[in-house]
Write a structure and sequence with these properties.
Strand order of the largest sheet: 13-14-16-17-18-19-20-21
Bound molecules: ligand C2E, magnesium ion
Largest sheet: 8 strands, mixed, barrel
Shape: globular
Number of helices: 24
Strand content: 15-25%
Number of strands: 21
Radius of gyration: 32 Å
Length: 606
């Protein structure tokens, strides 16, 4: 295909899909959407720039491109601005070899970008922004493709200018107010237009994995205004409210009047959910200032409901009704406030509910598993023990970790059965490993939740499991956290003493995260202290962590306890812990938690 033919095919395609009354955002979406299908690039993005204003129309063919566009806007640096200012293309066939935009380069390389080709969107001497073509492989863009891209950028510029002119005309004409898409009283987009915009925004958000939010605004006691001042003042108030709302929102947002005293704001591209709340604050603040109307000074307040969609495929059809629901919650709470429904929260709750429902049968269906993480001697590195860690292999949701399972199990009381299953399975597995490696003693660590530990029958249950599985009690260490003695320290002391009488050892897990009262260490029958991984992670970064770790180790040794460092991830951390005299280490640096068979291999290979 010759260059001219390629260009004309692209232009035809672009023009055909470009409806004459497309709004600016749709034009840009169309541009980046089509161009990736035609040119040899990974993704494309475009930003419109107006002198002296924040860039506010951005389009991107995918999430990565959106990130690169935003990066440039945030840093105020990059090929996009350079092409816009110079009016000439900026070609970077290999980002590694180009140091014109050092800050953009650093962020972009890290995100996987290797080449970028930027074309200014020109119209005569004016420039409207720039089109960025991104590629994740280095290499030049051939001349024909460059020409095509530049032509497309210029054509898109013409469409955008057209759309701007059209907007200006429409806005100034009476037609605007009578239009079927606008509210006659306030001139704002009406319900019909709002739904159109919402549809488009939803599609865009799904594609670019961005977050959408809707603010639903309802004036409190608007009826009182109508009743006491008459409808003319009521109408004046609504017009004034519309103006203030328009002042409060950002350039790319849409504010519409849904009916009566109901308004909605649609925000796209809210990367940070808290900004939606900021906007709600601003709106409530704007409306709090009394309205000077022709025959009255009127004060109003409003109830604002906010709903966020989760990013990407979680953008919901129900966003508007959720915002509406949130607004009613605000109203029920007395009005003059805003209320939030966060769909991401709701998704989490829904997931939790369904897991709650599935958990009781999980053990019976054989979905629970144990992973074992070796515990090694700090000096020498031999495996001295293993910790059993619970996993749930859920048929639909994949592998679920203990941070989800344990709280669910605790709330439902299932923790007792699950805990017993864990202990029994871990004993069986440990004994098999021990049988296969008779020359090294393997200490088994099993976590115990306070909810099981504090039950009267816990000690008996442990004893039964040890007998049934023929496990010597001194091979077992039960790991407990400090929460155990916070609730009822007198009882905790008795329980731990009873367990000690069985012959099992007790470890204090995650040491340093709770109240860490050092007196507890002395008071309670604790054999092992496990230093929480947050302190280990900061070794070498925060001097205070090294000091804390040092003093924990010293104190533990003074009291005759053994110390384990959790979460050892690097050689440096290991070295430092060795220098400090830490007895045992556990962490990804040595091994991740693994199925019992993998651990068997590892023990055999030694
Ligand atoms: P834990 O007892 O402190 O277990 C250590 C956790 O740290 C494990 O997470 C382990 O995978 C993780 N870990 C180990 N090395 C590293 C490392 O180098 N870096 C990092 N970032 N993490 C590391 P996991 O398996 O998700 O378990 C989380 C917690 O859930 C456990 O913390 C324990 O408190 C609890 N848990 C696990 N299994 C059970 C169980 O059967 N019963 C009860 N009651 N709790 C359990
Ligand atoms: Mg543990
Ligand atoms: Mg721990």
């Amino acid at each position: 295909v010759g260059q001219d033919e390629q260009l004309s095919a692209v232009l035809c395609d672009f023009a055909r899909t470009m409806l004459t009354d497309f709004p600016i955002q749709s034009i840009l979406d169309q541009l980046v959407g089509r161009i990736v299908g035609i040119l040899p690039i990974t993704s494309a993005g475009v930003t419109l720039i107006a002198p002296g204003r924040e860039p506010h129309f951005i389009a991107a063919s995918n999430e990565a491109a959106l990130r690169y566009e935003r990066l440039q806007t945030e840093l105020d640096e990059g090929p996009c601005l350079a092409a816009y200012h110079s009016g000439s293309p900026v070609l970077i066939p290999d980002l590694h070899l180009d140091d014109r935009f050092p800050r953009f380069r650093a962020g972009a390389l890290e995100a996987g970008l290797r080449a970028v080709f930027t074309f200014p969107m020109r119209h005569g001497d004016a420039r409207l922004g720039a089109l960025d073509l991104y590629r994740e492989a280095a290499g030049p863009l051939d001349e024909a493709t460059s020409d095509t891209a530049q032509t497309l950028a210029d054509v898109a510029a013409a469409y955008v200018l057209n759309a701007r002119a059209r907007d200006a005309v429409v806005r100034s004409s009476d037609h605007y107010r009578e239009s079927a898409l606008h509210d006659a009283l306030t001139g704002l987009p009406n319900r019909v237009l709002f739904h159109q915009r919402l549809d488009h925004a939803t599609q865009r958000a799904r594609r670019s994995h961005s977050v959408l939010s809707i603010l639903f605004i309802d004036l409190d006691r608007f009826k009182d205004v109508n009743d006491s001042y008459g409808h003319r003042i009521g109408d004046e108030l609504l017009m004034a409210v519309a103006q203030r709302l328009q002042r409060a929102i950002r350039a790319g947002d849409t504010v519409a009047r849904m009916s009566g005293d109901e308004f909605v704001v649609l925000c796209e591209d809210l990367d940070d959910a808290s900004r939606g709340e900021l906007l709600a604050h601003r709106i409530v603040g704007e409306l709090a200032v009394p309205f000077h109307l022709s025959e009255a000074l009127v004060k109003v307040t409003a109830s604002v409901g906010i709903a966020y969609s989760g990013p990407g495929e979680h953008v919901s059809e129900h966003l508007l009704s959720d915002a509406d629901e949130a607004m009613y919650q605000a109203k029920r709470a007395g009005g003059d406030r805003h209320q939030l429904i966060d769909l991401r929260e709701r998704t989490r709750t829904a997931t939790r509910r369904s897991l709650e429902y599935d958990l009781p049968g999980a053990a019976a269906r054989g979905e629970l598993r144990l992973a074992y993480q070796p515990v090694v001697r700090t000096r020498g590195g031999e495996i001295a023990g293993l910790e059993a860690l619970l996993r749930w292999d859920h048929p639909h949701r994949g592998l679920i970790g203990p941070d989800v399972i344990i709280p669910l199990a605790e709330q439902s009381g299932l923790i007792v059965d699950i805990g017993r299953w864990v202990l029994a399975q871990a004993c069986v597995d440990r004994n098999r490993l021990q049988h296969d490696s008779p020359h090294q003693a393997l200490q088994l660590a099993v976590n115990a939740s306070p909810h099981e530990l504090m039950r009267p029958e816990f000690q008996r249950s442990v004893q039964e499991v040890l007998m049934e599985t023929a496990t010597e009690p001194d091979a077992l260490t039960l790991e407990v956290t400090e929460t155990v003695y916070l609730e009822d320290s007198v009882r905790a002391l008795l329980v731990l003493d009873d367990l000690k009488k069985l012959g099992v050892s007790i470890a204090l897990d995650d040491f340093g995260t709770g109240f860490s009262s050092l007196t507890h260490l002395q008071q309670f029958p604790i054999d092992v202290i496990k230093i929480d991984r947050q302190f280990i992670a900061q070794l070498g970064h925060a001097p205070v962590s090294a000091a804390i770790v040092t003093s924990i180790i010293d104190l533990a040794h003074t009291l005759g306890r053994t110390v384990v460092a959790e979460g050892v991830e690097t050689a440096e951390q290991h070295e430092q812990l060795a220098a400090l005299g830490c007895d045992l280490c556990q962490g990804y640096y040595f091994a991740r938690p693994m199925p019992v068979d993998d651990l068997a291999h590892r023990l055999r290979d030694r």
